[in-house]
Amino acid sequence: MVLDLFKLHGKTAIVTGAGRGLGQSMALGLAEAGADLVLVGRSDGIDDTRKKAEALGRKAISVRADLSKLDAIPHVMQKTLEAFGKVDILVNNAGIVRRAPVLEFTEKDWDDVVDLNLKSCFFMAQAAARDMVKRRKGKIINVSSITFFWGATRIPAYAASKGGVSQFTKSLCNELAKYGINVNAIAPGYMATDINKDLRSDAEKSAELLSRIPAGRYGDPDELKGLTVYLASEASNYMNGTTVVMDGGWMAR
Fold it and tell me: Which of 8, 88, 211, 226 has the fewest Cβ atoms surrounding its Cβ within 10 A?
């Protein structure tokens, strides 16, 4: 049956930035499909996600780590292998945004955003792929953004980092597909999450954004569950190296 292709029972998934927003929703979507979870983040929110996953009957562990520091990555992998012996799925979601006019954007803000959103994303994928290669199978899902396609304003480092994520997704596909590893990215549009809370709370700016979205609303993080499960499952075995947009129609306008 076709629905069997979407089942993730027996799979282990690492989800970064899993304590809230998109990360929590994607993690719980994987759990609902049967996957066990390694939940990575800096806040207590990962424990909340863990409890919700356990309530679904899944095994889950919380790993506190600051992924802007590369030495956190071996720690995450060690905890994963100790608990589950393997990693089948990686959702590279951890990220931040800093907003300022181009002429005022600081080096520190640039480095903070790029180190977490791009540098750690690549090296996390590299670490997971080293384990996946052993079994010649795996799924890597990177979280990009519609800013990959259009630059937006006041977020130059974020736009650059997310553009880089989509580009290295292609590069990883070119090298890892021969090992049975699929590497794809999701580019969400404007979602109802903390990362754009300031924009949504600004009545004038929010009205401007919503007027550009054909759906006429912000996305719900839970709406990413289905796409995440698809990209993590056998159903997407011939999809590789692509960035899938989920934006309520923003890019179509």
Answer: 211
Helix axes 107-114, 156-176, angle to 10 degrees: 30
Quick one: pLDDT band at residue 197, thresholds 50, 70, 90?
confident
CA gap 12, 116 in Å, rounded: 23
Query: Domain span at residue 154?
Result: 2-245
Q: Look at the pTM and tell me if it is higher than 0.70.
A: yes
Tell me whether residue 158 is one of the annotated catalytic residues.
Answer: yes
Q: Is residue 222 part of a domain?
A: yes
Instruction: Output the domain CATH number for residue 195.
Output: 3.40.50.720
Both structure tokens of 244 = 């899938």
SS3 content of the chain, % helix, strand, coil (to 5): 55, 15, 30
Catalytic residue among 158, 190, 218, 230: 158
Higher pLDDT, 36 or 195: 36
Indicate whether 80 belongs to any domain. Answer: yes
Is the four-CA dihedral 162, 114, 40, 126 of positive or negative sign?
positive
